[in-house]
Amino acid sequence: MINYIIGTITELSPTYVVVETAGIGYFINISINTYSKLENKTSYRILIHEVIREDARQFFGFADEEERNIFRHLISVSGIGANTARMILSSLTPADITKAINEANVNMLKGIKGIGIKTAQRIIIDLKDKIGKQKSAAEIFIGEDNTKHEEALSALVMLGFSRNAVMKVLDRIISEDKKLTVEELIKRALKNL
Question: Domain 137-192 is of which CATH architecture?
Fold first, then answer.
């Protein structure tokens, strides 16, 4: 699975970007949010979410991890496909989507083309616990501690652990000892999950 592509931007439109690397041009679907961050750039590291189906292989690209995480949460909701999630991210910023979910703002979500009231309600119900209101203790830390937390969190979620459970364990471990390396954080977390 491809995590990111670094290369030269050869084409850019509000809905896609073509990135050339090693002589190959990758067609990557993007949101308006990512488009605005790529404007006037000649090269970039684009985070990828790969969708492989029987009849197609698609890349969805993101300028930052926050947007990719929201995208992945959205496509986990029944009835929301990759293109619908991209439409949502083109209509609202990741911060606005998080706010709408946390505040149960159905009207903000149903204002997006293709999202009806039932789909908006489903998004809120399904994602309310996944996109939590409260900041974890580790997110309040700045600099290196937060980077270590994010790297360890990402690794453990990829191993299949629940994001919320991992965050709680990492918060506790970091509050006990802030000098741990990423590897030590992961090892301790695995013992507690």
Answer: Orthogonal Bundle (1.10)
Cα distances from 112 to residues 63, 93, 143, 170, 186, in angstroms, run: 22, 12, 36, 36, 39
Residue with tokens 């590897």: 183
pLDDT score at 28: 97
Q: Mapping DSSP to helix (H, G, I), strand (E, B) and coil, where does residue 15 land? A: coil
Q: What angle do CA 19, 49, 63 make, to 5 degrees?
A: 55
Assign domain 65-127 to a CATH class.
mainly alpha
Q: Which CATH superfamily is domain 4-62 in?
A: Nucleic acid-binding proteins (2.40.50.140)
pTM over the 0.90 mark: no
| Interval 19-38: pLDDT, tens | 999 999 999 999 999 999 99
- What 71-75 contacts at long range (C-beta under 8 Å, 24+ apart), as own/partner pairs, is 73/127, 73/130, 73/131, 74/123, 74/127
Report the interhelical angle of 144-158 vs 163-176 (nearest 10°): 140
- What is the length of the chain? 193
Gap between the Cα atoms of 121 and 153, Å rounded: 28
